[in-house]
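User: Hello! My lab partner asked me to get a predicted holo structure for this protein. The small molecule is flavin mononucleotide, SMILES included with the sequence. Please write out the structure tokens.
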Amino acid sequence: MLTGRRIVLGVSGGVAAYKAAYLARRLMEAGAKVRCVLTDAATEFVGAQTFAAITGEYPVVGFFDEADVSPHTTLGQWADAMIIAPATAATMAKLASGLSDNVLIGTALAAEAPLVVAPAMHTEMWSKPATQRNIAEIVADGAIVVGPAVGPLAGGDVGQGRMVEPEAIVAAVAAALTRELDGWRVLVTAGGTREAIDPVRYIGNRSSGKMGNAIAVEAASRGADVVLVTSAPPPAMAGVSVISVETAQEMAEATWAQAGDCDVAVMAAAVADFRPKNPEAAKLRRNEGLPAIDLEPTPDVLAGVAAMEPRPFLVGFAAETGSLDGALRKATSKDIDLLVGNDVAKTGSGFATDTNEVTVYTPDGSAETWPLLTKREVASRLWDRIIASYDRG
Ligand SMILES: Cc1cc2nc3c(=O)[nH]c(=O)nc-3n(C[C@H](O)[C@H](O)[C@H](O)COP(=O)(O)O)c2cc1C
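Assistant: Hello! Below are the structure tokens for the protein in complex with flavin mononucleotide.
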């Protein structure tokens, strides 16, 4: 899978450093040439000798204690791809701001190769605004971030923060090097629409756009040219161009204008089914009594794309509560290629969470339920599934 590819593995100082030794082994087994660069803190968790024994090369640990006068540029220029696993909160902060005060960050700055980052830390550290700001910067700068996953953490805790398994990191670096969506144009819709009642109020829904954003970011990190039609705050990432919309009508118009040029359309937005027929021009007032709000149907964005001739490979989403029967009906009746159903009432799933548990349906009604995963992991599996199902010709 990685035959002859030159991989720099950067290891920073978290408990998951023990898994980095196994990751080095898996990279070697996949045919890669591996060189490691460790932070000082990483050596508190795993000895440099371990990586030397696995890769056949002594890891680089300091700027100034190496035979090489410029180890960071030598390693950075050598790399076909670089991985940082585990990436601690401290290392991510340095990476986000370009603070090259250790040789791992120096190498990451000197490298022009794809960078895969696998964060690992306690849930509290991961969810802090500072960490989230840093990770957003890292993604915006073009790195491919995998995880963190939900699961057991150090000290017996459980939550999001666990480094993804080495196999997933090997797969991510292989995908980054093959850029299997190079040349693909992809349309993603995200967020919930707002339908005006009056200039102040609207009918909306709880969609945060996180699932659609993850799908867009995953596609761009695999090399796709992505158009994201969204009513939610978008991710900043090279390869993702954003069209901001608010209403179902605007989402329909933007989507239909773009879909004809796309290979794949993934419709993750939560589009209103109904809107006020005659939105008021001025704010409704309490003292004028209870208003009667007449509703009318909104355009069916998904059906509009399904009716195009030719049309892109089409993936729909269905947000259900309690039972996924509606998702199954949509999968078999809407002339689409895949349907992702989720129960948004379930803990950890659906709107505004970072995780999701989904069932993927095909038009013949067959179903595959995935475990509770981060939205990025769902996005990654979904793209694997699309690539396996879509014959691009
Ligand atoms: C036992 C122990 C476990 C730690 N695990 C983590 C961790 O999983 N993630 C993290 O971000 N920091 C963790 N830290 C804190 C880092 O080691 C510390 O922030 C260090 O400065 C990171 O340096 P580095 O990023 O240069 O390797 C841990 C510290 C200790 C003592």
